[in-house]
Amino acid sequence: TVAVAGERGVLSAIMREWAEAFPDSSRPHRELGTASERRGQLEGTGGDEPSALPSMRRARQTARTAEDSLAAAVSEVRILLKLGRFDAAAALADSTLARWSAPGARFAERLSALAALLGRGHESARLARNAASLHLDDRAGRFAGLSGAVLQTWKALESFAALCGYADSLRVL
User: What's residue 132's pLDDT?
Assistant: First the structure.
């Protein structure tokens, strides 16, 4: 555990230098937030170490692409949940979902998790179905040989059933 803590300290120092070198870039702040999260520094001051929550907020503020914006928002939701700020996490998840009404597969997988977090089974299933195409090219993996329609249905059912979906709704899916 001492070695792991030391490695996390080195990683945090590297991420801090990266974020300081590129203060208006989202990715370094997100990675710094992740490094701080791994060290258990979710909020507050840790000396010269920024904590995870402000780093993720800075990552969202500096996001220039939709991918950076979504990644930072999902990470911030995760940290808010760890801090027990469920209302704030739900509000951020809800506003993030509202930004994408018809996301492509690349974003749908992350958004499906946010919808599930909010207990929106049908929305989570719809997004999981959209995200299924990401796995169609996984020829050597567990999805090898499945048709797109089967994989889409599987992912939608998996998502909806994880939220204790009702039998009649599962039949419709």
Answer: 75
